[in-house]
Amino acid sequence: MKDYKLISKRIRTCKNNCIFCFIKQLPENLRPSLYIKDDDYLLSFMYGNFVTLTNVTERDLDKIIKYRLEPLYVSIHSLDKDIRRIIFNSKKSISGPENLKVLDKNNIKTNIQIVLCPGINDGKDLEETLLKLISSFKNILSIGIVPVGVTRFNKNSKIKSYTKENALKIINKINDFKKKHGSLKKSVNIFLSDEFYILAGMDFPEYKDYGNFYQIENGIGKSTVFLKEINEQIKIDHTADKSGSDEGPILVVTSEYGTKVIDESLNIILKKLKTAGKKIVSCVKVLEVKNKFLGGNVKVTGLLSGQDIKAALGEESTEGFEKILVPAGIFNEENLTIDGFNKKDIEEISSNIKIISEDGYSFIREIIFN
After folding, report:
1. For 278, what's the count of Cα atoms within 13 Å in the CB-facing half-sphere?
2. Could you give the 3-state DSSP secondary structure of residue 14?
3. How far apart are CA 220 and CA 217, in angstroms?
């Protein structure tokens, strides 16, 4: 969690009762900070946290405008009144879009998030919401669309996970929408999260298609950046005598979604380095860790638990690897995993563990040049 003490002794919390609220889907007895439902525009401005704008006052709006607190990150999900009532489960749900209009008219820039829920806001409503956002609002920098997260603790039967087939339909829907409304400049600022492409088994969009990567922390374009960094690092550092050395085997720890990105990275090494690449890749084993702690459709690397990593490594002969690479992205700003493991806890699992930055440059250096 963020060190909110630096901002205020009192965080403004969310008064909505969203049907997909991730905090309500967490197990009990985690550290208290994980249960804070923040909906604070200051946190949005400073850290990129998403807010609903349903609990801001007129005075708050005046402050945002006066002090130019932008860009803000705003969760919209839908502009339809009835669908918003279902999603937010709050009488004040309609105030969000109204407050967004006020900010937009006063030239406050925003990044919009739409959490898609199968059968609720991903049909005609999605198209109508997108069209209104790109035609009626002038200061939206990006619109990020992400699939709903569902853990094994979810108790709401209305919330379902996306399947491969449904993910493909969403990708095609967004592509068709952007082609149809290409005359509206803002249409190019609509992006799907990486999860949709992984679920559908499709290639990620090209680097140039993401613009300024306004929502990379929201999992939008992160994989494309990683793969671009892989290519760049090989071009910068590769020489025949550096690669293909007699290093011992390397174990790469990642998540179910992370496996696709790591596999693509290894394919790049094979293509770019040819014979040396084959030797390098043959020394790499990918350990895909399933998220049993949260379960459901939670398959991103950042939410891997320490206990799941420890269990997965316990089934490996870790002493046989020269190094075991664990992504730093599993830790928050306080260096804790979601279940409270710190870096020392992870490193103590095996003396071969090395925690590395979650970027392509670090990965390729560890695989090839270190």
Report:
1. 2
2. coil
3. 7
Are 247 and 206 found together in one domain?
no
Whether residue 238 sits in one domain with residue 357: yes
d(CA 283, CA 97): 53
Q: Find tokens 């306080």 and name the residue.
A: 334
Q: Is the same domain home to 214 and 271?
A: no
Q: Which tokens in the block code for residue 190? A: 């609509």
Domain match, 232 and 214 both: no
Q: Give the residue from 164, 194, 220 where a domain finishes.
A: 220
Q: What would the 3-class secondary structure string for 31-73 be?
A: CHHHHCCECCHHHHHHHCCEECCCCCCHHHHHHHHHCCCCCEE
- Residue 235, exposed/middle/buried by CB under 10 A (0-12, 13-18, 19+)? exposed
- The answer to whether the predicted template modeling score (pTM) of the entire model surpasses 0.90 is yes
Domain that holds residue 354: 225-369
Q: What's the pLDDT tens digit per position in 260-305?
A: 999 999 999 999 998 888 999 999 999 999 999 999 999 999 999 9
* Greater model confidence, 3 or 286: 286
Q: Are residues 133 and 206 in the same domain?
A: yes
